[in-house]
Amino acid sequence: MSITEFKSIGSVVREFQIFYREADFVVEVPLEVPQHFRYDLQLVMQDGIVDNSELAICENLIYPVLKEVWKIYRHNFLLWSHQFLNYSDRLSGFPEYILAKRSPLGKVVFDCPYLIFVEAKQDKFDEGWGQCLAEMVAAQRLNEREEIAVFGIVSNGKIWQFGKIRDRDFTRNITFYSIQDLDSLFASVNYIFQQCDRQVNNPTTV
Question: Would you say residue 203 has pLDDT above 70?
């Protein structure tokens, strides 16, 4: 079974005996949204085709946000696009995006710990979370350190949902974020990146 065969959170929870709960763990960390970014996004959403496919959602709505926040943390992390993740036949696939620690060998090396996984879906959030959570489980096992929190994001480009797994506990953030409120969205994504940055050196802090 590849990651794409998981169609719901429940299927992953049962398969890997994970404890599921819902709670708000995201704490917004303000980050200034550049004016040029606001202008470009408004132009694309007003005059472009942004959500006719998952690929379009990735390119037009998800990656620009991730990239803008990643710039602050780029010295410690790499943002990989559609990179093959393989733990086993049942836990393998191509997540939309993965944030991983930058390898000392250089940017060409896909190295753990793997920390953020992003899935794009056209409003199929339960299916998106099934795949995203399976990716997070695969990352835990590849990292070989279950005390490191792994984060997940599922988005249709306009609505962004967040989750976190540590040990066998998966928490889905209750509050959703919208691309219509860029300040809150940037602040929430910034929080996730910040947590990854902190725990690389001290995994007990997140």
Answer: no
